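Appendix B, record 7
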Amino acid sequence: MKARALATVLGFCLMLFCQDSRATELTLEQCLQRAIKHNSMLKAYEMATDAALNYKDSQRASFFPSLKLRAQYSLSDQPDRISIPRDSIGSGLPLQDTNITNTHRDAYQMGVYLNQPIFTGGNLWHTYVRSGYQHRAAENEARYHKEQLTEQVKRVFAELLAANVRATSLAKSLEARKNQSRIVQDKLLEGYASREEQLLAGASLSATEAKLVQASNHVDALQLRLYQLIGAQADERFDLSGKLKKLRIDAPLDDFVRQADLLARPDLQALRYRVKQREEEVGVARSGFFPSVSLQAGYTRQSETSVVRPEVWSITLNAEWSLFDWGKTVADVRRSNALSRQEAYSLDESMKTARNEVVLLWRQSRAELGILLEAEAQLKSAEHIAEKTLNRFLEGKARRADVLDAEAALWLALGEYHGAAAVVYGTMASLERATTTSMVRWVVDESLYQPDFEGFSQRMTKAFNNAGAGRATEPVATSPSPAGIGTAATLPVLRQQAPARPVKSDNLPASQVPLGAVADKKVVKMSKQGTEHGPQQKEPAVGIIMYRIQLGAFSRRENAEVLLKGILPETSPLKPSIVYEDGLFRVVSTYYSSRSEAIQSIQPLGIKNYMLRAGNRP
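C-alpha cells (predicted):
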C-alpha cells in the first residue's frame, strides 16, 4: 500500500514539475478561441442553423413558378391496320367500313410544363414566415450554447488552476508529513515521544497521501473535460497560463437585476421565436378551409400520326377545395393553437426562472465571497502559526515536528484558498451568461494573498541545520496512554523557560500542579518472572519536590549503557545512573534541591539535549 502511494506521489510530481518538450502554454483566451473553433456540440448547433436557413430558402421558392421538362418514349406491339365498322361510332358514322393503316409501333413525347400557384389560402405565406422564425430560433440557440460553452471553459479553466495549486500544496504538505513522521519515529525510539504521537503522525501522513491521490485524479478529470471542451487531441500537452483573482460584486441586488438585460438572453429569444413559429403553424392549418388555385401551361413535341399532330400546347387553370374531411382541418387548427399556447406559457415561466437565476447567482457570489475571505483568513492564520512555531523552535519551546506540522497546515490552507477563489470565478462566469452582459463594470478584482513560502522554507532549513549541528533541546509533549495498551511511557516535562515553584503534589489537584512540577510515576518492579507493572497511581509525596536531569531514555538497557559509558569524566558531578521506569531504561543524574541548581550544574558541560524531571526523592 505504501509502495503504491509512493509511486502515485512520484508520478504526480514528475507530471507536475517536469516540463514536457511538447507542452505549450495556453491562456484563457486561447482556450475560448479553440473551443469556439473546434467544439463538436457547437458545430452541431451551427449545422442546425444552416439547415433552418436552407429550409427558409426552399419555402421562399414556392412563391415562384416551377418549370419542368418531361420526356417519354414507348414501343408497343399493335396491328398494322385498324378496322372501324360502319355505324360503330354513331348513326352514319362511319358511313361504311373503314380500314386505317398503322405502321408506327414506337412513339415519343417531350414537353415543357409551367406551374404557378395563384391562391393557397395563406399556406405558402405562413409556411415561409414560420421557416424564418425557425431560422432565428436556431441562431439564438446556437448563440446560447456558445455562451454556455464560454461559461464552462472559464469555470473548468479556473478549477484546473486551483486544482494544480491544491495538488502542489498537497505534495509539499506530504513532504512535511513524511519528515514529521520520521522525526516522531526517531523520538519514540529515544523515549521522547509516545506511541500515540506516532500513530497520529502516521494517520496524518496516510490522510495526506489519500488527499494527494484524489487531487491528482481531480486534475486529470478536469484536464479531460477541458480537452473535450476545446476540441484538443489526446496527444496534445498544455500548460495553463494564468492566475486566479479575488472577485466581488459591488452593485446592490436591485440595481444589478434592474440593469441586467434579460430580454437579450439568447435562450429567451429562441423561445420567443418558437412561440411565433407556433402561431404561424395555426395559419398553415387554417389554410385548409380555403380553396387552392394554380395555373399550368405546357408545350409538347410528339410523334406524328394520322390522328395526332406533332406539336401541342395547352393552358390549364386548376382549382381545388376540400368540402368535407371528417373534421381533420378543424383538429389541425386546434392542435396548432394548443401548441402555440404551450410555447407561450413556457416562455413566461422561463422569464421568471431567468430573473430568479440572476438573483440566486448574485446571492451565491456573496456567500462564496464570504467563504473565500474566510479561507484567506485561515491562510493568514496558518502562516502566522507557522512563523510563530518556527520562532518558538528557535527559542527551544517547540519541536521540529511541530514546525513541520504547521508547514503542512499552511500548504493545505493555500490549496483551500485557491479552491474557494475558483468557485467564485465560476459563479461570475455563470452570472455573465445569465445577464448576457460583461461583468467588467460590476466586478472588482484583487490579487490573491500569497504567503512567503520561499522565505519561510529558507528560515526553516537554516533553523533545522543549526539544530542538527548543536542538537538543541526539543520539548516533549505529554499525553496519557490509554489504559491496558502497551505504549511507551509518558514522560513528565519541565521546560527550561517555564518557571516553577516547589509545590507539594499532595496539596494540589493534578490540574493545578505547575508545569514541570509533576511527580514521578511509580517505578516498575523487576522480578524473576519478568516485568510487573504496578497500578498507575502516585505514591504519597514525602518531603519537598526534587529535580533530576534525564540524559536519555531507551527501550533496551544496552543502549542506555552505551550512553552512560560515553559520558565524559568531567560530567561526573551529575553522578548519572540507569533507572528502569515506565518500561524504559532512563539515564538520569542525581537529585537536586531546586530547578536552578540543576540547570547550573549542566550548563557548564555544554550538554543541550536533556530534560528536567520533578519528583519526590525516595
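Remarks on this record: The two ends are 50 Å apart (CA to CA). Residues 224 and 534 are 63 Å apart (CA to CA).
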